[in-house]
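Ticket 4471: requesting a sanity check on a complex prediction with oxa(dethia)-CoA. Repro inputs:
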Amino acid sequence: MSKIHAAITAVNGYVPEYVLTNKELESIVDTTDEWITTRTGIKERRILKGEGLGTSDLAVEAVNGLLKKRGIGAEEIELIIFCTTTPDMPFPATANILADKVGAKNAWGYDLQAACSGFIFGLATGAQFIESGKHKKVLVIGGDKMSSIVNYNDRTTCIIFGDGCGAVLLEPDAEGYGVMDSILKTDGSGMQFLHQKAGGSVRPASHETVDNHEHSVYQEGQTVFKFAVTKMADVAAEIMDRNGLVSEDVAWLVPHQANKRIIDATASRMGVGPEKVMINIQRYGNTTNGTIPLCLWEWESQLKKGDNIILAAFGGGFTWGSVYLKWAY
Ligand code: UT7
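Returned structure tokens:
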């Protein structure tokens, strides 16, 4: 019997309407369009406006569109893995809230926290439930409302992040398409360079933590940048090596969109030309768990059955990883 792989059989994405441009950021913090563009490649990002709206509301749009595309009902979903760093609330899981909102009455689910590498971790994890035969329809969602944890007085972090969400459906495939391999890594000693100081069990919310902006992203940008450039490129090269892939075999690189310079370094290390690299950072910025599925969604019409696709990400934790998949439709 041929091995069962977990194939992506549908993808969809959603970004909120409000466009926060570099020009508008110039009126909020001491920055310029020129600095942001040359240092990061970002021109604008989307922001979810509106009282009482959270990450699950981004996902509702992405998932409802995905189910429609695939022509299936929400009750057919068996498992929801919600990769996010900005859950609706500390508990219950956003996966539960989403399941209720879209009517996935027969699904169980959980949230997965691996910062910017979350979607890669979620895809590799979701694939296991398909490969083992446990489930036939698994939703993997990557989404964040980063504007909820960004300090718009901190010019080095607020310019990077945006809100957005993407979702993929995993189903069994016996013809050799789908997730072929994954490499996942963590190094908790990197925590000090990228984290959210308060709101967890170590430092619960207090007047002081709010006054000090400790519920926002804290990032030592240059250090994170150095690790990201090396680790993301290393892991992408490693997954190519161990699967016997050379650059000509790779149809697409789908990199996490944190900084255009990190993306370029990864592509160059893989020997992959810019025409094969999915980049939408200029329009959406860094949507954390959303970046990779949003790219797949936007490039879907250009993908061909059998395309070798390499996903790669690096994020807080530190976490990093790569997935090799063969596109299934
Ligand atoms: O998504 C997962 C993980 N995150 C990443 O991968 C992000 C990695 N880091 C980065 O992308 C970059 O480090 C940043 C985009 C965050 C910052 O760029 P940088 O080139 O590393 O800048 P820097 O922090 O070294 O700052 C250089 C200078 C400083 O001024 P001085 O000290 O040289 O006078 C900053 O104060 O640029 C200044 N600066 C700014 N100037 C204008 C920092 N932010 C801004 C800004 N506008 N927004």
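Notes from triage: The two ends are 22 Å apart (CA to CA). Leaving this open until the requester confirms.
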